[in-house]
Specification:
- With 116 residues, the protein is mostly beta strands.
- Helices cover 0% and strands 56% of the residues.
- A hairpin with a 4-residue loop joins strand 5 and strand 6.
């Protein structure tokens, strides 16, 4: 059983920074991808950034150059460093692990609000 626990959300002013962290427990040996999604009010959940099992990194166009995803295999964490935040980055951010043959696992989500 895979469990994901996010932390690090909060309220920040435009132009500010936040760092989200996701603690991963359980077996992810058959991992297909791991990363972060977000869902703003009234909108569909969208990919923010993710690592694939092949080692590539994928970012949403709207966050390229501002957000950086990183992974610490020793600590079993995946982080999202968010810089130059904009009001349109306001959303609930979810950690996600996709496993071959077992589907997707999600964290409970953490709220990020960018407002002056």
């Amino acid at each position: 059983q895979v469990q994901l626990v996010e932390s690090g959300g909060g309220l920040v002013r435009p132009g500010g920074s936040l760092r989200l962290s996701c603690a991963v427990s359980g077996s992810i040996f058959s991992m297909r991808a791991i990363g972060w999604y977000r869902q703003a009010p009234g909108k569909q959940r969208e990919l923010v950034a993710a690592f694939s099992s092949a080692g590539s990194t994928n970012y949403a166009d709207s966050v390229k150059g501002r957000f950086t995803i990183s992974r610490d295999n020793a600590k079993n964490t995946v982080d999202l460093q968010m810089n130059s935040l904009k009001p349109e980055d306001t959303a609930v951010y979810y950690c996600n692990v996709a496993l071959w043959g077992s589907g997707d696992y999600w964290g409970q989500g953490t709220q990020v609000t960018v407002s002056s």
